[in-house]
Amino acid sequence: MFSNNQIFTAPLAGITDKPFRKIIRQFAPDVSMVTEMISCHSLVGRHKNCIRNFDDYTDEGNIGAQIFGAEPNLMGQAAKILQDAGAKWIDINMGCPVPKVATRAGAGAFLMKDHVLAGRIIESCVKAVSIPVSVKTRLGWDETHKDWVDLVRVAAESGAAFVTLHGRTRAAGYSGNAQLQKKLELPLPIIANGDLRTVEDIERVQSLGYDGAMIGRAMLGHPWIFGQICGLCDEPVNVGDIVLQHLDLMMNYYGAKTAVTMFRKHIAWYSSGYSNSTQFRIKVNQITDEKELVKAIKDFWSV
């Protein structure tokens, strides 16, 4: 099977922040991680309302920082800032299907429609940094425009080091099943992404010729999945201990008031499948005090 550094955490907006990455690292110290996507405008402008603009990656091991935007010069500047902050490589988002990114901002998945601009953005980032630059993309804009192979070739010509391929089109969003076919002969390594949850899924994409695997939504509520897949750990005996630690990290990072609200989605994922989880989530969604939330977690998981 792939080695640890060929297994990647996917960049999930609002989820794979620094606190969550610290939890994952406990179970898989050498897995390759990618930050949640960061706007080049926000990063270069040093917008203070976005805390991840000021993250220090020097203690985070093998981590790539993902940026999005449609202006080559700004993307290059953003890449340099992230390199200086300790990122080990820069990942360019060319697959996000969310309208505010892919249509209104002309970034993310929109760059699958404009390969010339995509190439200019990659070149700008490559010239701005001395670390590798990668691209994360999809099969294409829709079923009639599945031209990801052309974009891979543009990425190679522009100096990219590798590409991550999500097996859906932009139009598909996250619906249906990811469609990853046998890897073609291409000038760059390709990391497979989409609906990968188990060791068997990883082995399947490896048998299809891919050079690595990226796991996304399967990590929700299961940050130890990377350790399990890499054969480093089993599921924790008491998940409640991990939940409390995660909450504590979020409160230290965001402040208690913000963290309590933000943590509700994680509570829903962590508690999924437990008896009485629905009632627990309803209760948690009404809690605004951190001490009350800690008590609710301890009671639910008998910590």
| Gyration radius, rounded | 19 Å
User: What is the number of strand segments?
Assistant: 9
Envelope shape:
globular
Q: What is the correct CATH architecture of the largest domain?
A: Alpha-Beta Barrel
Order of helices and strands: EHEEHEHEHHEHEEHEHHHHHH
Q: Ranges with pLDDT <50 over ≥5 residues?
A: none
Q: Count the domains.
A: 2
Return the CATH topology of the largest domain: TIM Barrel
Mean of residue pLDDT values: 95
Estimated helix fraction: 25-40%
CATH superfamily grouping of the largest domain? Aldolase class I
Assign the CATH class of the largest domain. Alpha Beta
Task: Give your account of this protein's structure.
This protein is of the alpha/beta class and 303 residues long. Helices cover 40% and strands 13% of the residues. It has 2 domains: 4-229, TIM Barrel (Alpha-Beta Barrel); 239-301, Non-ribosomal Peptide Synthetase Peptidyl Carrier Protein, Chain A, CATH 1.10.1200. It has helices spanning 18-27, 40-44, 72-84, 99-102, 115-128, 148-157, 199-207, 225-229, 239-254, 256-262, 264-271, 277-284, 290-301, and strands spanning 7-9, 33-34, 38-39, 63-68, 89-94, 133-138, 162-166, 190-193, 212-215. Helix 3 links the parallel strand 4 and strand 5 (89-94). It starts with 6 loop residues before the first strand and ends with a helix.
